[in-house]
Amino acid sequence: TAPPAGPAWNDSAYRIRQSLATVAHPEHAHPPPPRADRTILLLNSQNKIDGRIKWAINNVSFTLPHTPYLVALKHGLLGAFDQCPPPETYNHTGYDVYGVQANPNATTSDGLYRLAFGSVVDVVLQNANMLAPNNSETHPWHLHGHDFWTLGYGVGRFDPAVHPATYNLRDPVMKNTVAVHPFGWTALRFRADNPGVWAFHCHIEAHFFMGMGVAFEEGIERVGDLPEEIRRCVSTKGGHH
């Protein structure tokens, strides 16, 4: 007997319906905090830097510093990475997620988001059209160091004045990886209660390498002394700079 046919691989409408229908089992439901202390809107876009195709978040293509963030922060190496944090939002009232950008140029940065320890953070991932017309991909986003509540999904441009009212605050599934569907948005909530620096990025390795990611710092003062061996990395080698 032939196996039943599943949905087409590119049936994004089916995948969104499935995502919206997925909730936590009643015996394992763990409702999220009722509200966030901070909201970060992240626009996924395909861009160009020096003529090369890159991925960017809020028009910034993420790069990793040569010196690990944790080492730089614990040893006061402020020149090891960009001290200017990335933008927390984009033109969400006017950006056309279905159109090709008139100016696809972006910049690079290894700056990070500094989160208050113990705070509740909402992140909304917004997908958009790529450089080619009528083209948008699914991106599996993964957060290191935490599980998060998946609050909602939608198609089109996220509206912070409207869509939060549709969030599932009763029985959302907790994950550490979630899909952002073509031309859609995904909202998640987590508590910044794990001291350290944590990557949040597309789990398609090529996309992360090309700039689709960010980093969060929280409670760095709570991190203990680092092993001496770690200081051999790049800017820390030989002492403070």
TrEMBL record:
Q: Which PROSITE patterns match?
A: MULTICOPPER_OXIDASE1, MULTICOPPER_OXIDASE2
Whether Metal-binding counts among this entry's keywords is: yes
- Output the CDD domains linked to this UniProt entry: CuRO_3_AAO
Which keywords annotate this record? Copper, Metal-binding, Oxidoreductase, Repeat, Secreted
Instruction: Quote the InterPro entries the UniProt record gives.
Output: Cu-oxidase_C (IPR011706), Cu-oxidase_fam (IPR045087), Cu_oxidase_CS (IPR033138), Cu_oxidase_Cu_BS (IPR002355), Cupredoxin (IPR008972), CuRO_3_AAO (IPR034267)
Q: Which Gene3D superfamilies match?
A: Cupredoxins - blue copper proteins
Main localization is secreted
The record's GO CC annotations read: extracellular region
Cite a single Pfam family from the UniProt record: Cu-oxidase_2
> Residue ranges of the Plastocyanin-like domain?
92-219
Can you say where in the cell this protein is located?
Answer: Secreted
UniProt cross-references to SUPFAM superfamilies, sorted A to Z: Cupredoxins
Q: Which family does it belong to?
A: Belongs to the multicopper oxidase family.
What name appears for this protein in its UniProt entry?
Plastocyanin-like domain-containing protein
**What is the source species?**
Aegilops tauschii subsp. strangulata
